[in-house]
Amino acid sequence: MRLLRQRESLGAQQDYESAMTLLADVHRTGPVLRLYQPVPTVAFGRRDELRPGFAAAARAARESGFEPLVRRVGGRAAAYHGGCLVVDHLEPAEDPTSGIQDRYRLFGDMVVAALEELEVEADVGEIPGEYCAGEHSVHGTHPSASPAAGRRVKLAGTAQRVVAGAWYFSTVVVVEQSEPIRSVLTDVYAALDLDWDPATAGAVDDLRPGTTVADVERGIRKVYGMYANHLGYGPLTEPD
Questions:
Q1: pLDDT for 101-133, tens place per residue?
Q2: Which DSSP helix (H) or strand (E) runs through 60?
Q3: Rounded to the nearest 5°, which phi and psi values hold at 158?
Q4: I need a surface site. Which of 56, 59, 138, 149 has the fewest CB within 10 A?
């Protein structure tokens, strides 16, 4: 399984289009795992683009320093920045539609396993009021010693796209600096006239202070290495 550690973001639109290029080529290259830290982005869904407040929402994102992007998969607006880790996983498949729900469950559990490497209590499931709500979101729980003990926050969202003979699964893990994400999404969701609870937006370092993107990346690499070996792909290999 080929590992591509993208050292710098190419820009919101360019990063997304690069994923589509990888998807088109995955029949030739074989399975690919791409990791990178994005520029500040608000990724809108198609339904957001059709709402009367979309132009105002895109403007609010820009005013907060986040680049608006309309992605080709479903879901509502989600925000991420350089304190996040994007995990793009692409594989060829004879029937890519047959395993859609299985992939949501498996890769959500793999993110949970990576976070448990850091002793972060996490699970898969939607939190009432979360942004870009989904039953396969990854959430974490504030530890008992914290002032917010027991409160759950969204830590990662997932999405996938299938094409003839291949699939693309993308996960964004919010690791550091949750406040800018809460702030921009508050303005964006107000412009879209959508309800949500800003208290549900969090980051791994809210639950485990001092955690870095590099810490989470090590956990992600470990669990994906196990996945690759289990399927007979061999170890993750990064090009020279």
A1: 999 999 999 999 999 999 999 999 999 999 999
A2: helix 54-63
A3: -130, 155
A4: 149
CA distance 175 to 141: 14
Q: What is the DSSP string of 172-184?
A: EEE-S--HHHHHH
* Strand partners of residue 68: 42
d(CA 6, CA 9): 7
Q: Would you state the pLDDT for residue 233?
A: 84
Sequence-ordered list of residues with C-beta below 8 angstroms from that of 55, at least 6 positions apart, any chain = none
**Rounded-to-integer distance, Cα 222 and Cα 94, Å:** 27
For residue 18, the SS3 value is helix
Mapping DSSP to helix (H, G, I), strand (E, B) and coil, where does residue 233 land?
Answer: coil
The pLDDT of residue 166 is above 90: yes
DSSP state of 89: E
Q: Residue 130: name the closest of 84, 179, 173, 189 by CA.
A: 189
**Residue 232, strand partner residues:** none
Cα 209 to chain centroid, rounded: 20
| Alpha-carbon gap, residue 227 to 31, rounded angstroms | 12
Q: Does the global pTM surpass 0.90?
A: yes
CA distance 12 to 217: 20
> Would you call 4 helix, strand, or coil by DSSP?
strand
* 142-164 mean pLDDT: 90
Residue 205, CA distances (Å) to 115, 120, 198 in order: 11, 10, 17
User: Which of the four pLDDT bands, split at 50, 70 and 90, describes residue 240?
Assistant: low
160 to each of 17, 23, 90, 170, how far by Cα in Å? Answer: 14, 11, 10, 6
| Separation of alpha carbons 235 and 83, rounded Å | 27
